[in-house]
Amino acid sequence: MATHVEGLVDEVYLPPAELARGAHCSSMEQYEQLYKQSIDEPETFWGEIAKQFYWRQPPTGAFHEFNFDASKGRIFVEWMKGAQTNMSYNCLDRHVEAGHGDQVAFYWEGNEPADSARLTYAELLQRVKRFSNALRSLGVRRSDSVALYMPMVPELLVAMLACARIGAVHSIVFGGYSSDALADRILDGHCRLVITADGVWRGNKLIKLKHITDHAVELCAARGHPVERVVVVRHLPRLHHLVPSVGDQPGGSEPYNVKTGWNSGRDMWWDDALEGVSDECEPEWVDAEHPLFMLYTSGSTGKPKGVLHTTAGYMLYVATTFKYSFDFHPEDVYWCTADIGWITGHSYVTYGPMLNRATSVMFEGTPFYPTGDRMWEVIDKYAVSKFYTAPTAIRALMRLGDETVKRHSRQSLKVLGSVGEPINPEAWLWYHRVVGDARCAVVDTFWQTETGGHVITPLPGATPTKPGSACRPFFGVQPALLDEQGEEIHGPGEGYLVFRRPWPGIMRTVFGNHERFETTYFKKFNGFYCTGDGARRDEDGYIWVTGRIDDMLNVSGHLLSTAQIESALIEHPDVSETAVVAAPHSVKGECVYCFVTTRHGVAWTEQLQKQLILKVRERIAPFAAPDYLQYAPGLPKTRSGKIMRRVLRKIAQGDRDLGDLSTLADPGVIEPLFEHRCAGA
Ligand code: ATP
Ligand code: MG
């Protein structure tokens, strides 16, 4: 099987010399040495790292225990069992007590460029202590779960850290989800208290979070689950610059009417909840394995899973991955564009950076508001040195042309991260050459909600990178590739990406459903954690994540990954986005069905289609050539921006039974796709 895109991915990009000089890990020899220690002596490796944190009690038993073998009983993972600590203490008090209270923890950048704020570690600590007391006075106790349905505002950080401080378990629901999706998550997590805001502007769009919450709470009540309290942040009136409302927004120019739908027995303003609370708040000292949060996966491949993470292992892991994957240094200004509602936001907006005492940007807006220059403007405004975003954003920004980027300085940038989907070599190269002026390191970080933090990633000062490859495993992570029979593939090859044993940040269970945890991740290949992704290992031991196992194609006995074909198609200058799926074929078994979004203003001509077929034949092989090419005005994506290929598979087959659509961002894209379906497929 042809796997290389000649001239593109064969090139190796060495770590920028300047970066390598002061890096935490500055050569592959050093990486190999640290990696070996992390595998051979995990207790020494992680034990040394644990010393940076505050422990009320050291571990009482084994530093690390697990079982991945169902024939030996229950699947479990434990790190530092019996040790006592507190996450918020380690993110805040530890730094303030060491004299760093005045350091900026977050520059908050609002949807409107004129709205901004800054928060120091000391201010955050103060606010967290006060809100912790407010939560306690509202009856929230250790182990209770609390739903957070909030915009990217400082109160979201305060609320999550306050939950951690009092040993409550936060369940954050992305503020773009519908009331149905919110209700499902409130119910599944048994949350009796919901924290939200009046609303938020995202670009030109007003999202009425409180109204959506009200509806969700009604849905919960109808299903026998009363939500006792809704705490509401008054966000809209404090904005300096209200965005003029566009015509199709319900409510016209009125941003939010507080008088409607206020349930005085249940609803409470955030500020009122803080009335009269004490400034002091002793943290709840919790066990290492005490749950920290639950978070639902994106729902790309099916019904979202409620992933549960615990305290100590997650803390060690996100802190360490943040430090090494971005090569974090105290002088950095770091910006992760992810919403805190996703795992990327949990691990790399809040916990990872704060545990390292980073100064970060927290961004409320979108890359395209008020213009497509916004990302680069924010980078220059705060002199961002480490930048972390998703391929979906990179592809969209690439579409706007190089000029938009080049008219901004970006001199502060050093490391450019990517996460969420496989990044096509085309987009990787654009990120490197245009955004990073060919002088920054690009780190393509592979991981999942379940893994807690990066599991396969380059280290910016050490790893020579290859566009499209997530490179090598992080410390403590032992990947393997298995074939369909569960036999291990040694050396170069392609198969199921699994992990042989746990690292500290791996999930502990599916909330309230340990059986689903065992069957989803451990049943297919007993003894291994199965990611559900496919990957290829090349001659240098580099890992190329090729996409979901479900998305693999078997054409006349040739195994193909959709990512490969997509990468070939997107090289065509007229293509802005594409998704490839398998469709049944009477002779070949499966055939290649491609959805193609063209660049703005480009017509969908027969000639273009011929060129695309040629491109795939050249880049991969004749047998991989698309059987069907369909024009796609838009692609179905999750709200985290990932293409939902399972929905496209159904559309390709003309099947209207589309499965769980609760995480679909824009239902409006579906009908046009049925209309443009290729005849005969
Ligand atoms: P669900 O599990 O509900 O189907 P999801 O897998 O999209 O949703 P997440 O945990 O948000 O939910 O995403 C993890 C997945 O994202 C990975 O399994 C992988 O498919 C993809 N992914 C993330 N980062 C990368 C990357 N750097 N390269 C390739 N794929 C990636
Ligand atoms: Mg997944």
UniProtKB/TrEMBL annotation:
Annotated ranges, domain AMP-binding enzyme C-terminal: 564-642
User: Which intervals hold domain Acetyl-coenzyme A synthetase N-terminal?
Assistant: 31-91
Q: Which domain of life is it from?
A: Eukaryota
Q: Which SUPFAM superfamilies match?
A: Acetyl-CoA synthetase-like
Instruction: State the InterPro entries in the record.
Output: Ac_CoA_lig, ACAS_N, AMP-bd_C, AMP-bd_C_sf, AMP-binding_CS, AMP-dep_synth/lig_dom, ANL_N_sf
E.C. designation(s): 6.2.1.1
An example Gene Ontology biological process: acetyl-CoA biosynthetic process from acetate
GO MF annotation list: acetate-CoA ligase activity; AMP binding; ATP binding
Which terms are listed as keywords in the entry? Answer: ATP-binding, Ligase, Nucleotide-binding
* Annotated AMP-dependent synthetase/ligase domain residues: 98-508
Q: Which reactions fall under this protein's catalytic activity?
A: acetate + ATP + CoA = acetyl-CoA + AMP + diphosphate
Q: Which Pfam families match?
A: ACAS_N, AMP-binding, AMP-binding_C
Q: Belongs to which family?
A: Belongs to the ATP-dependent AMP-binding enzyme family.
- The entry's protein name is Acetyl-coenzyme A synthetase
Organism from which the protein derives: Amphibalanus amphitrite
Source lineage: Eukaryota, Metazoa, Ecdysozoa, Arthropoda, Crustacea
